[in-house]
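Hi Q.,

Before the meeting this afternoon, I wanted you to have the adenosine monophosphate prediction in hand. No need to reply - just skim if you have a minute. The sequence and ligand are here:
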Amino acid sequence: MKVIATITELQQTLTPLRQGGAKIALVPTMGALHNGHLSLIAAAQKQADIVVCSIFVNPTQFTDPKDLEKYPRPLEHDIKMLTEAGCNFVFMPSVKEMYPSYPTPENWKIDLGPAEFVLEGEFRKGHYQGVTQIVYKLFDAVKPEVAFFGQKDFQQVLMIKNMVLELGLAVDIVTCPIIRETDGLAMSSRNIHLNKADREHSLALSKALFYIEENYTTQPIDRLVEQAKAMISSVEGVELDYLTIVNGDTLLPIKEKASNNTVALIAAKVGETRLIDNVIIN
Ligand code: AMP
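Predicted structure with the ligand bound:
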């Protein structure tokens, strides 16, 4: 696997491959890779000839400077994982490479629809402008035919699809299922910050979601949400930001049950670490 740090080198490397007919896939990440990330690499390998994984801790999507500072960056471990997975290229640019005028902000404001401002958008103001800004730049640098994202960040995939529509980009967006630890916790780079007690308490999130999933057909929506919230509040050290059952396009809470496009989403602080998770109900 080749490690590439500049857009110029990336394009010098990929252009001849593309011209030779290779289908190029991109898997954008912020590193601290785990099996969730590797599942995206594996899915990309099935659908494309060349897989580029990007590792870039994107400053413009962080609303809390402390969160940005303490974001894990185990680069050697990541390169080893990607090499073993048979990834072709890893693109690891500097902040200046992606944002030449950093820290002076660049102009980026795109209409992502009203779903930008709910859930994560409410708790992390401007987050999806930062996410779409870097994903646009990565698409422009790599020029992939297809890009792979995780359902783990459900709202993020929706926002990226909305950007692709809004800007008319020729990139297929593929969503891959959530990879979990055997006890149910959704894998996340942030799990590394959980101490032993937090790690136990963190199970409340997936348990509450699985409760909703299992009881969806037999209980009214209000009761499901109420019960699931009670499960969370009974666990010490878990502070809920939201737990909601929504339409998967609008991300607005549903009042009546629907037969498709229903998702339950949760965000909570476990100790000092903020975690998100979701289940697609139908
Ligand atoms: P991140 O490095 O956290 O920005 O994530 C990079 C990509 O991996 C995003 O598309 C995430 O949704 C995806 N991802 C993160 N965790 C998981 C997981 N547990 N299962 C599947 N995909 C994941």
